[in-house]
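Hello Y.,

Per our agreement to keep a running log of every chain we model this quarter, I'm adding this entry. I've kept the format consistent with earlier entries: sequence first, then predicted structure.
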Amino acid sequence: MTINWEGVMPAITTKFNENDELDLLTFEKNIKAQLEAGVSGIILGGTLGEASTLTPAEKETLVKKTLEITAHRVPVIMNIAEQSTKEAIQVAKNAKAWGANGLMLLPPMRYKATDYETVVYFKEIAKSTSLPIIIYNNPVDYKIEVTIEMFEELLTECDNIEAVKDSTRDISNVTRLKNKFGDRIKILCGVDTLAFESMVAGAEGWVAGLVAAYPAETVAIYKLTKSGNIKEALRIYRWFMPLLELDISPQLVQNIKLAEVATGLGSEYVRAPRLPLRGAERERVQAIIDGAMATRPQLGEYKSL
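Predicted structure for the entry above:
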């Protein structure tokens, strides 16, 4: 399946039950809500998906279940976040065998690789697979930045590296990438609180977090922005901002799962060492969610834009 790398691509949460097992019924409900809202792809096993806690068997189950639910309507993309090149290549092979349509690649985990080591890591994975790839560039959380110079080498040698999830939190990076590479690389914003600004600057899409709880509002902002209806996009975006700020937190998984409860698209169950929010922090987050639910905006027809 060809991936256009545009629109809204949810970084899906992994649903668990009270016994710490995959909750595939709730997972299916959420995926169907994403499809109904008009998302352009599904990304599995990212930070929000609690990837570091998932077993290979659970990852296989999630990929195959998502393919079943989506029925090839949108691409299914598997995240790779491993400690060694050997492990990353194996995950890439597994993902293709399971039927995934693309890969999202993080730099090496735990070890702070040099620029040279990071480029070699990405190239060896890319050359081991025919699947299209989006590079996840998040120096804030993962301490390794994929620079313009590094992208230049990667894009020259690896045709299947096609896009970047830009989480640098530097809005001008969209313009730098466009000035340097034009349409050779597609840009998807990876920071919820900069999505509108990034798309106005030329980013083709949004790898979103709060979309897990609010799929229609997220896709509406994208569609309205790209169709030029900035005023209406801003109306929804400004309402959304207190919720979007829940994504830029070490507890983003717990925050977003609590929001999923409010919209009926998930539960609070997380996998240890993560634990559900409690005390004053839970009250603070719940108050933000309650306030947003009380003022949830009416959406006009956006899907045909």
